[in-house]
């Protein structure tokens, strides 16, 4: 089976490509390289450079490579940027998805996996977020992901396309140093950057109603995330007409302060964090219930927080050798 992986030159996408190949699946990468890196695409995997807004190129690609399933990862994903540029986010994330689904259904591709996000939940006031927790996104980014889920589900119901929407929680780690996250938008690389500069990591708010006053999040290793995509792809292939919505998380909360403490311990950098005011819209706690994905796919995360930090740090040191421990 051949899977078209949009955004397959990105951080998460490259891991999905690797996992698919290790599972014996063929992959084709479709990426505009706005944030993706061509060198991440393995030798022997075709790379088509293009936008999901280009319906003609998508249709040619699906036909040329006899694509039988799509994993759609390509999207704009920065919450703050989405607030500043909502029209751009809706154009890329929703219209791009519509164009892609049109090409997919015209080509009669039977399976479609959609990259969604825990951002669809907004600020849930629950201990564990289930897939039935009400979705109240707080940013245009989260809105586009929820709208994308609606569009994917409606298309599946109308056409028979097997679909799955995977709601990612906080992704970290790397399968190998060359595949590490090069962006500085998530907590782990943000802390790495501060430590490299010799500056204190920042905590945004320490007065939340949590055990240590800092926000609590669910972190998932990118290798586990990629393997969840393989399990999902196999389920869609085996069960035509499937319609799944699944959280991908570990079901374990880690506070921001605890995460920073673990990072400084593992990296050998002992700078204590500084506390800054809360950021608007940060929920106190967002931790996944992972029960449904375990039941549906017999999938469970294998890696812990230390694995995420140590593998991400190896990748960071590859690009920033000056960040070696000062001790």
Question: Any overview of this molecule?
Answer:
This protein has 327 residues and is of the alpha/beta class. It folds into two domains: 196 residues, NAD(P)-binding Rossmann-like Domain (Rossmann fold, 3-Layer(aba) Sandwich); 104 residues, UDP-galactose 4-epimerase, domain 1. The protein is 40% helix and 18% strand. The chain has ten helices and 13 strands. The strands form three sheets. A seven-stranded parallel β-sheet has the order 3-2-1-4-5-6-10, with helices on both faces. Strands 7, 9, 11 and 13 form a four-stranded mixed β-sheet that branches. Strands 8-12 form a two-stranded parallel sheet. Strand 5, helix 5 and strand 6 form a beta-alpha-beta unit. It is globular and about 55 Å long. The mean pLDDT is 96.
């Amino acid at each position: 089976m051949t899977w078209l992986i949009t955004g397959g030159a990105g951080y998460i996408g490259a891991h999905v490509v690797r996992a698919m190949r290790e599972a014996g699946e063929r992959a084709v990468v479709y990426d505009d390289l706005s944030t993706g890196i061509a060198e991440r695409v393995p030798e022997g995997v075709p790379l088509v450079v293009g936008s999901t807004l280009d319906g003609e190129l998508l249709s040619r690609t699906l036909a040329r490579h006899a694509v039988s399933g799509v994993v759609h990862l390509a999207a704009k994903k920065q919450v703050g940027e989405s607030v500043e540029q909502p029209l751009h986010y809706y154009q890329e994330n929703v219209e791009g998805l519509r164009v892609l689904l049109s090409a997919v259904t015209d080509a009669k591709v039977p399976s479609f996996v959609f990259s969604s996000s825990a951002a669809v939940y907004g600020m849930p006031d629950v201990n564990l977020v289930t897939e039935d927790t009400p979705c109240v996104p707080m940013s245009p980014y989260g809105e586009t992901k929820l709208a994308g889920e609606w569009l994917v589900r409606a298309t599946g119901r109308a056409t028979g396309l097997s679909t799955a929407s995977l709601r990612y929680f906080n992704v970290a780690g790397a399968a190998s140093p060359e595949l590490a996250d090069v962006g500085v938008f998530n907590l782990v690389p943000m802390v790495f950057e501060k430590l490299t500069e010799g500056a204190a990591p920042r905590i945004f708010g320490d007065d939340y109603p949590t055990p240590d006053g800092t926000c609590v999040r669910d972190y998932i290793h990118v290798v586990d995330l990629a393997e969840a995509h393989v399990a999902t792809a196999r389920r869609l292939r085996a069960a035509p007409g499937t319609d799944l919505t699944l959280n991908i998380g570990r079901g374990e909360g880690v506070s921001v302060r605890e995460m920073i403490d673990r990072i400084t311990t593992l990296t050998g950098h002992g700078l204590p964090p500084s506390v800054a005011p809360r950021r608007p819209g940060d929920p106190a706690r967002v931790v996944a219930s992972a029960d449904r994905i375990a039941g549906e796919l017999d999938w469970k995360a294998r890696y812990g927080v230390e694995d995420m930090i140590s593998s991400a740090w190896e990748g960071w040191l590859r690009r920033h050798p000056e960040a070696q421990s000062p001790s």
